[in-house]
Amino acid sequence: MATRVLLTIDTELTWRPYSSGAGWRDNLAASFDPAGVGIPHQLALLARHGLKACFFVDPMPALLYGPEPVRAMVGPILAAGQEVQLHLHPVWADLARGQCEGARFELTQYDLAGQTELIAAARDLLVAAGAPAPVAFRSGSYAANADTLAALARLGLRFDSSHNGAEHPWPSALPLAAAELDPVELGGVVEIPIGQIARRGGGLRPLQLCAVSAGEMRSALRHAAAAGHPLVTIVGHSFELASRDGRRVNRLVSGRFERLCAFLADHRSTLPTATFAGLPPLERPAAASRPLAAKPLRTGRRMIEQAWGNARYERPLSSALAAAAPIAALGWLAAYAGL
What we know:
Layout: E1 4-11, H1 15-19, H2 24-32, H3 39-49, E2 54-57, H4 62-65, H5 68-79, E3 83-88, H6 91-96, H7 112-128, E4 136-139, H8 146-155, E5 159-160, E6 184-186, E7 189-191, E8 196-198, E9 204-206, H9 214-227, E10 231-237, H10 251-266, H11 296-313, H12 317-322, H13 328-336
Parallel strand pairs: 1-2, 1-10, 2-3, 3-4, 4-5, 5-7
Antiparallel strand pairs: 6-7, 8-9
Helix pairs in contact: 3-10, 7-8, 11-13
């Protein structure tokens, strides 16, 4: 049986523009379509390769700004024929109440009643912005616990995808083993864990565009298909293909996304992309799925790539240009290694 791939993109207005005083239009530009490689660009790539994806949209900024920014995010995704599901960063609720000092960033800072209220409000805001009623949820920062699952069950959501073993036991605090990769039903909700690879010396690294190299991503997907994993969940973000300041294309991460799309298009028979709404009943495999094992050469190549990318794209533009000469050798090594 084919290994389904859930290519998920967390789509949101972000804290950094808000904290610098930006209004929602400027925040939308910086978070939704920075440097021309945000959601419209990603939708175009998905369409070119004939791939499905799920966009977890956070509607909570509507509490502060009204529905316009959420409609501006939801509309293009649905028009492109892609899936919208529910994302939630609770900090916007405190900001909307004027509570900036001590604002709560994690959903797990609320009890069951508080989480239920927040998720219900977010669901209603998402639907009011034009999205279908969601069936899947992901908590911002992967901050979820047993109360989160209970709240989702009360509200009738079928899936959660907040378990990130690389962030376990905090802020991803679901009652699962860190290395759990397979779908599992917990209290009436099916948990869909984030994909992982093993790290040298122990621990895990998530299958997130900014966290693993293109080679690691391809190896993890081949490993999952060969081992018969029922599915693999990959994470990206609306802003992740741009530099941290949103002013430049991050050619390292944007290149990873382009390579991932091409790879999935070439392997659609064994690694078909899927949506949450279209998932059939999922059975746990007889043997638990295991993360791709670490290999020193593969890890070393990624470390070179990350060092080069962080120096080049995750500093302010002036600092990055000043640092270009010292990191030229790392850039050459990354290119030579085919990363």
